[in-house]
Amino acid sequence: MHYKFSDLVNIKKLQKILENFSSVTDLPVAIADADGNILIGVGYQEICKDFHRKFPASNAMCKKSNTFINRKLHESEVIENQCIIYKCENGLTDMSAPIIIEGKHLATFLMGQFLLEEPDEQLFREQAEKFGFNMTNYLNALKKVPVYPEEKAKKIMNFCTDFAEILTTLGLKNLRDQENNERKKQLDEYKSKMEKLESIGFLAGGIAHDFNNILTAALGNISLIKLKLNREENDKVMEYIDEAEKSLYESKNLTQQLLTFAKGGAPVIKVVCTKELLQESVTFTLRGSNVKCVFNLAEDLLPVEVDKGQISQVIQNIIINANQAMPNGGTVRIDAENVFVNNQEKVLPVKDGQYVRISIKDHGVGIPKEFINKIFDPYFTTKQKGSGLGLATSHSIINKHYGYIAVDSQLGKGTTFHIYLKASKNNYDAKINQRTEPFVASGRILVMDDQANIREMLANTLRSFGFEVESVEEGDEALEVLKQHAFDVAILDLTIPGAKGGKEIIQEVKRINEDIKVIVSSGYNNSPVMSNYKDYGFDNVLAKPFSLEELEEVLKDI
């Protein structure tokens, strides 16, 4: 915590207190900050302001006094516990003492000028003649200077510095309480946002589940068409198919945003290359845009343990906003680096540990200050065509990854989003995701799904890979088929309305055929099975809707 004396004390009130003190004691007093700037000054002596400091020759002696005191104040052997007394060459005395708070020299209390004993009038007569002062006026001014013996002056000084330190300590406590309250308020707002998102999820999740089943069949059949058609011979048709596929993927992203609100929508965690994740997400989103991206990624950037689809969605949402904030084009800058969070003061609502910090900065219109605390609220938007789900979804996703997302923005200058993701302790194997040749396989696969169009699409796709496929509608039927025939792989829908789903039959499936590899599939992550599938006996997971490439990757993995 960085603070100055003026941050901790009400200067106007303290000035009033010192004015009253000076009027009672006739002592001039002042307080200077750590840089020597006078914050308060009251009761200056007439002999100083009208004579000593007014004439160049005598003023030079006053400056010697200031220099001596400043030098002494910065000597460690006296700064902690001593008053500094200096008798200036003009015959008066200055006294000063540091105001120390928690070992830090915040300010200096100055007292003077005054006399330690009754003055030698002859000495001051000679001084008046030397500098050409009006003798009568000068001696009258001398009579107004208070006399305080050294011990009494020290006691007065100690009282003043102790009083100032008490006020300052109280001010520091108030400042810390204020900052703690503000931090607590931010954390409470963060928690409130999450509760709001979760409540919406119950409604959104059910809708998204049904829609994902439709998308699964549609995307799968489009992938089959692309496999069957020769692109060179059907160039125009393939363009139409590509556009249809792109629209379906946009619909997939929308349902993913709805699913994020759903209770239990835990991410399916895998080790992901951070660099590839960022570059792939941004390239896809800015395709055809007049906005360019500049990457500044640390060479030793660690991988992260995330749900690749969900975090890609977060990046895409932010990039979409950046793109819309710069309608005439521009540049988005993405920085990523490894950071270690040591959260002793709870600056970030995350656990201590190694993180990857991603910063996405645009140079767009910026966000008005009054909207900053609302942008992560569901359905809040300032855009005519916006759904208000993008940033709310991003907020929820990052929270479910036990990370943190924050935003800085200046109106007319741009916006920066900061994302903290937990770094992985495991290495990322790039070879796993390299596709060097078309996927060709063999073996027998059992498909169980209550949706006929999904069963048919999956069967056709798997046969195109080289598999023999049999399809069933529900769990009891699947168990009967497994007893009659041997299968290498089974793809089981997690839940079947009114019948047994994958969760209910997995143990029996493994009992019948202990060598079979079982993939659990679902369009709604409303169960911990999807994020912790191995704990329930499954060998891999396939979230609906899925692409041809995702299906290939899961099959290769087992």
From TrEMBL:
SUPFAM superfamilies per UniProt: ATPase domain of HSP90 chaperone/DNA topoisomerase II/histidine kinase (SSF55874), CheY-like (SSF52172), Homodimeric domain of signal transducing histidine kinase (SSF47384)
EC number: 2.7.13.3
Catalytic activities: ATP + protein L-histidine = ADP + protein N-phospho-L-histidine
Coiled coil: none
Any one GO molecular-function label of the UniProt entry: phosphorelay sensor kinase activity
Domain Response regulatory: 444-558
Modified sites of kind 4-aspartylphosphate: 493
Gene3D superfamilies for this protein: 1.10.287.130, 3.40.50.2300, Histidine kinase-like ATPase, C-terminal domain
Secretion signal, residue range per the UniProt entry: none
Name of the protein this chain belongs to: histidine kinase
Species annotation: Dethiobacter alkaliphilus AHT 1
Lineage, top ranks: Bacteria, Bacillati, Bacillota, Dethiobacteria, Dethiobacterales
